[in-house]
What does this fold into?
Amino acid sequence: MSINTKKTFVLAQGFPNHKVRRFQDGFLFGTSTAAYQVEGAWNEDGKGESFWDYRFHVLINQTHPPGDVACNSYHYYKRDVEMLRELGVDVYRFSISWPRILPGGFRTIKNEAGLQYYDNLIDELLKYNIQPMVTMYHFDTPMALQHLGGWSNPSFVDWFVDYARVLFDRYASKVKYWTTLNQPDTTCEINNKANYVLKNATGATDYLCTKHVLLAHARTYRMYEKKYKKKYGGSVGMSTAVNWVEPFTNSSEDVEAAERYKEFTYGIFFDPIWSKNGDFPKLVKDRVAKKSKEQGLVRSRLPSLSKEEIKLIKGSSDFLGLNHYTTYLITPSEIKHKVPSFIDDANFNKKRTRDEWTKSHSSWLSMTPEGLYKVCLLLNKRYDYPPILITENGWSTDTGLQDPSRSKYIQHYLNSLLLAIEEGTKVIGYIHWSLMDNVQWMEGTSERFGLYEVDFDSPERTRTARESSLVYKRIIQKRIIEEGWKPEK
Ligand code: PNW
It folds into this structure.
C-alpha cells in the first residue's frame, strides 16, 4: 500500500500502514515546561522580580496571582522528575529563570541559591538518565532590565550573552541540549496580542527586539561553539512558533495575506539563520521600507543587518526548534490597526477556524494534525532539510483525568510527524507541552495543558496522571503509534 500522502493527507483516512512505521532509534521523546509557569517561589531565596511578577503585581494589581506559587516546582521538583520517570521520557525541557540566578539582571550579583536549585533539578534528572534541555529565556525578563527598555535596548544583547555565559560555565558539563530563547515572535510581541513586553513605540520596538534577539542568539551560539563545544559536545538552537497557515479562501487577497503571515512571523527569524544568503526576507524589508517612507520617516523602521551581522547569524543553530500547535486560516486584517505597527505592516487576521475542526479549551487552538506535516515539508523546501526538534506541541482541556481529546491529539500529531519523516524530514525528537497543568500566562490556570493534572488548591499542588499520560507512555515504550489505543480501566 502506498503511504505517500504528499498531497492528500486526510486525517479521516486514519493511519496508513502505521504498524510498520516506528520512530528511529535515538529519537528523543520528552515533555516541556517553563520557569514562570511552574516554579512559583517568586520571591524566595533571593530571586529577583521578573517582568511577569511585575505585570501581575503592579500593572494588573492582583493580590495573589497564580504565578506566585504556580505548580510549586521550586519545592516539588523531585515529584516532577518522578512523573518524568513514570512517563519514560528521554528528555525534559525546562527553562531557567534569569532573575532567579541574576536578581538584578546583570552578572555582577549571582544568587547561589538559584544556581543551586537548577543543579539539584539537573542532577535529579541525570540520576535517572533523563537528559536536561535548558531554555535560557522563556519570557521572564529580569524587571531591572525591562525598566531599561528590555529587548529594545541594544545593550540587552550583551546582557543576555553575559547571562548565557553564567549558565554555560555552571551547567555545560551536564546539559547537552540548549535553546537560547523560546518564541522570539512572542517575546517581541510581533505576533501576539498578549503584550509580553512593555512597549511604547509599535512598529519600531518590535523590530528592534527582532534584531536584538537574533544577535543575542547568534552570539550565544558562537560563544558555545568557541569555548564549550569541543569539550562538552552539546547543541544549541532556538525555539520558534510555527503554526501552519492557509488562505481562508483562494482569493488573491487571502493568498497574499497568508504569504505575509509566513514571511513576517517565521521568515523574519528563520531566514537570517537558515537561508543561504541570510538576512531578513525581501518581502518584509520591502514592505516596511515602503510603509516607513509613506509615513514620512527617513529610514525603515526595520533595522538593517550589516554584512558582519548577517555572517554572525547565518548558520548559528545546530537544530531548528519548532513549537507547533495548530492551523490558522488567514485573511487580510479586517480592522484598522494603529499606524505604525507590526500588524499594520504585516496586515493579516489569523483567528479563523473551520466549524468541523475539533476545538480545545484555548480559543486559538484546534486539532489539525496535517499542519505539522505541511510545516515540516515547507521548512525542508525552504531551508534544505534542517534538523528539526519539536520543542512544543500540545492541547488544552478543562480539568479532569479523562482526556480522550489529548490522547487523540498526541496520536494524530505524531502520526503526522512520522509521515513527514518518511518524506525525508530530519527530526531529532518530540517534546510535548506540557508535563503538567501550569500557569498559562494571562489565562491563569483555566486552560489545562498537562499530561498530569495539578490541583491548584492544595499546598503541595498535587499532581495526578491523566489518561493521556498512559497513551504517551505507551508510544514512548513501543516507538509506534497504535490508533485508538486506550489504557485498560
Ligand atoms: C506557547 N499561538 O505559546 C508558549 O511557549 C508556552 O509558554 C505556552 O504555555 C503554550 O504555548 C501554550 O499556550 C504560544 O498563537 C503562544 O499559536 C501562542 C501560540 C502558540 C503557542
In short: The longest strand covers residues 131-137. Residues 1-14 have pLDDT under 50 and may be disordered.
